Structures are given as C-alpha cells and as structure tokens.
Amino acid sequence: MKRLTISVPCYGRKRGTIRSIECISKQNINGWEAFIVGDGCPIMQDFIDSNYFSDLQKHMETKGNDLKIWNEPLNRGGSGYAITNENINRANGEFFIFYANDDIILDNHFENYLSQIENTDYDFVYFNSWVQPIKNRRTSSFSYGNIGHSEIIVRTEFLKKMPKHTAQYGHDWELISSMIKSGKSKKCETCPPTYVVMSLPFSREPNLD
C-alpha cells in the first residue's frame, strides 16, 4: 500500500499539465502514486506518443513512487468527474488528495496534508488554500463555494464509501457534504497554504496554454 494517491484529471492546458506533473515529482516525501489521466485529451495523447515523461516516470520509480500517465479514449466532460470516480476506485494509497492540472502545489504539499491525518482517527482533514488571481488566502469552511477538492485529504477507505461524483458543477461540495454527515474531521488552522489555485471560473490564468 502507498501512503498517498493523487488524482489529476486532464483536458487541454499543455503547460499547466507539464507544470502539475513537475510539481508532483518535486515533492519532498516518497511512497505515493499519482494518476494523471487525460479525458480523451489530444495533448495528453501527444505526451504519451512522444514518451515525453518516460524518463521522469522511471526516476520516480527509483524513489518508490508511481507516476502513472495515460489517456482515456473518450472525453466525458464534467470537469473529469468520471476519471475522478475511476481514480478513487483504483487507489492503493492509504490517503487520497485531488489536484487540478491548472494549479500549483508547493514542494511540501504532500507532507503538509499527510502530517495532519496520519496516525489519527480522522476520516478527512481540510486546509486553507492560496488563490493567486486575487492574491489572497481562501479560508475554508463547510459551505458551498468555501471549500473544494483542493483543500482536503481523505482516508481512501472512507472515500470509497461516499457517493460518486457527477457531471454537475459543484460535485466537490456534494462529496464534502456527504463526508461531513458520515465522518470525523478537523481543520488545520495553523498550516500555511501549500495548494495554489491559479485560475477562477471568471479569471483564467493568462497564457496558460
């Protein structure tokens, strides 16, 4: 069993995808698996056909990490909801985190999130994040629009019992709502944000692709 599973559905955002994979590979702890999956994405297929990441994947293996990159044949949309569900089902990590391929994680992100849930009885832990377009911290709370995938780490066994994601906008809040009702959680008030949101629905990062 791995310590952690990371799920990254991808469509488009060539430079964002490269950047997110580099962020994962620079983490200061090992023992993780990352599923970077194209949602019927031509850009991801180009990466695969050219073996763009093959050397990095081999290097990660020497550290005990699995950097798994592939492309699904069909695009199913819905912000990668189907891929998210599949990644949850196939996860072998004790804990699970989500990562959007247009965002940034700091080099200690995995360590930061794991430090608050390993060797505890919490089902999930949530954190604040940094929103780059407005250059401000998002203070997470249990309300729609104030918490999402980026702010949580979840015990995988618990996550697999939760309702599946759907294609509707806000499916991350639907998941978290279910977890609140069913599990034990805490917020890390003292942890500095290590997840950086690089774009908002109304404000895309300039020149990302």
Entry keywords:
209 residues, alpha/beta, Spore Coat Polysaccharide Biosynthesis Protein SpsA, Chain A, seven-stranded mixed β-sheet, four-stranded mixed β-sheet, 7 helices, 30% helix, globular, disordered C terminus
Short précis:
The chain has 209 residues and is of the alpha/beta class. Helices cover 30% and strands 23% of the residues.
Helix content: 25-40%
Number of discrete helical segments: 7
Shape: globular
For the terminal residues, how far apart are their CA atoms?
36 Å
CATH architecture: Alpha-Beta Complex
Integer tally of domains = 1
Succession of helices and strands: EHEHHEHEEHEEEEHHEE
Strand pairing plus helix content: what structural class? alpha/beta
CATH level 4 superfamily: Spore Coat Polysaccharide Biosynthesis Protein SpsA, Chain A
- At the first level of CATH, the class is Alpha Beta
Quaternary structure classification: single chain
CATH topology: Spore Coat Polysaccharide Biosynthesis Protein SpsA, Chain A
* β-sheet strand percentage: 15-25%
Provide the gyration radius in Å: 16 Å
Biggest pleated-sheet summary: 7 strands, mixed
Mean pLDDT, to the nearest integer, reads 93
Could you please describe the fold and organization of this structure?
This protein is α/β, with parallel strands linked by helices and 209 residues long. It has a single domain, classed as Spore Coat Polysaccharide Biosynthesis Protein SpsA, Chain A (Alpha-Beta Complex). 30% of the residues lie in helices and 23% in strands. It has seven helices and eleven strands. Strands 3-2-1-4-9-6-10 form a seven-stranded mixed sheet, sandwiched between helices. A four-stranded mixed sheet has the order 5-11-7-8. The chain starts with a strand and ends in a 12-residue tail after the last strand. The C terminus is likely disordered.
